[in-house]
Design a protein that fits this description.
single chain; mainly alpha; binds zinc ion; 64 residues
């Protein structure tokens, strides 16, 4: 069963990617990273408040 093997490898790959992402901190929240990519700053109130303290918004998944 080739497909089953492929699924197992994919699952393992995703788990590994998550582990690597978790280890790399601090991390910008997804909304802020997206806004930054577009040359803007995130307009979420929670993110603006966090940015004032030079931090990433933890409510939106960021890490400090
Ligand atoms: Zn944001
Ligand atoms: Zn936020």
């Amino acid at each position: 069963m080739k497909l089953v093997r492929l699924c197992a490898i994919l699952t393992l790959g995703v788990a590994l990617a998550f582990a690597i992402a978790e280890a790399g901190e601090p991390k910008k929240s997804r909304c802020c990273a997206k806004a930054e990519k577009e040359g803007k700053t995130c307009d979420h109130v929670c993110c603006i408040e966090a940015a004032k303290d030079d931090k990433n918004c933890e409510k939106c998944g960021g890490k400090n």
